[in-house]
User: What shape does this take?
Amino acid sequence: MLAGTVLLTGCAEKQEASTSLPTAEPAPTTEALPPLGPADFPVPDEARTKDAAGAEAFLRYWIDLLNRQRAVPTGEAIRALGPECEDCLRIAGNYDDAASAGNRYMGGELSLNDVTAPLIDSNEAMIAFGIRREAVSLVNASGAVLQSRAEPAPNLSSGITLVWSAADRSWLVKGFTLG
Assistant: This one.
């Protein structure tokens, strides 16, 4: 009871306001990351850290980018983020070919089912994952189906190898496999 009385009486004492303000130290700044990815869909900052969390965030961004580019379609962003990845260059070429012929993809959305913890070794990260691919068709300008995979693929065993680019301060795709 005595402790409660002491606490209560301490609150009742009159306190004078401070006449000085704390000094304002400028907040530490970090150097801005160089732009990377499409201007309206840049690689997010969380995917640009050289650790397991950054590698996984880059994988998630990459899948979102593939979904986005299929609707555009253009392979430029895929080539820029996977300049030495053969399958990336093949996918980019498919998107470019479709666009130049006036064709478009319908469906084919990719969604991650499960992602293993990234294995990091120096400047490389390897991630195994399962992915669902929805049914997809390549159609011409009049809507006629040119190619089709009518059945969805519920869990394609897939993987990605990323390499750290010090110049871009980001991961880039070195190898990519779906199914």
